[in-house]
Amino acid sequence: MGKFEINILGCGSALPTLRHYPSTQILNIRDNLFMIDCGEGAQMQFRRMRLKFTRLEHIFLSHLHGDHCFGLIGMISTFSLMGRTGELVVHAHPQAESVFRPQLDFFCRDLPFTVRFEPVLPGRSEVIYEDRSIKVTSLPMIHRVPCSGFLFEEKPAMRHLLGDMVKFYDIPVYRRAEIKAGADYVTPDGETIPNARLTTAAAPPLRYAYCSDTAYNEALLPAIEGVDMLYHEATFGDDAEELARLTCHSTARQAAIIARKASVKQLLLGHFSARYEDEQPLLAQAGEEFSPCMLAKEGLKIVLGK
Predict the structure, then answer these.
(1) Which residue, 59, 141, 189, 297, is the most exposed by fewest CB within 10 angstroms?
(2) The domain 4-157+203-303 is classified under which CATH number: 3.40.50.620, 3.60.15.10, 3.90.660.10, 3.90.1720.10?
(3) Which of 67, 105, 164, 213 is catalytic?
(4) What is the residue extent of each domain of the chain?
(5) What stretches in the chain show pLDDT beneath 50?
(6) Annotated catalytic, 67?
(7) Is the pTM of the predicted complex or chain greater than 0.85?
């Protein structure tokens, strides 16, 4: 498998602080960049983390609250100033185009590239993007406005040929692709060589789930079962569990319970409320329910599958 890197540009919630930028992440999957949410300051953080603007072709917006999308127009304007020509695709709630198109028409006239909005229908889980390497599926969240999470999954790779076996059986080049796909090899003499003797299994596909903003939601469990990393909002601590319920957010402990019940490999906490000057108590509360877990922070890079 190739590179699968998570870059945290922002992990705060709605009220700005000096500690955190609003929600924004960049996934670097085989040197193709995918943005998840686009809060204020996203393009500045993009530069600070030395990511390449030219590699970004798809932006996924979870919902139309400002802390998840106020950075979009500024970033598109910057793309125009840089002379971008390639299409930019924004995957978002069906209302997104009616919200942003007038702003684009006013602030970003005569764009040298196309901005295409692809609707993400709330309340359902479906494949919303797919290429040769990955698949992205929407995940219904429970929030005050329609909101979707995202599951990024690598597609299974072909098996690896054993070079010494290829030479020993003198396997012709035109037969190797089908063997990598799992077929046995029949020699010119009619002997069947089992695939397991000729290949080794590829690394398991990597899976990353982004779940923000949402109340505690066990309906997510089947979709995120066993993911390599779960990013789950942890807006509040135990002290504000009732506030979390009223605002359709989660506590750090609730995020960890979801991680435990879904048997995920790692938990990443984020979307922290401005009320907390120190998120270590949130990490401690989550740690009582699940491990390993960590706090998101600006500038953090996580490489899956190392």
Answers:
(1) 189
(2) 3.60.15.10
(3) 67
(4) 4-157+203-303, 160-200
(5) none
(6) yes
(7) yes
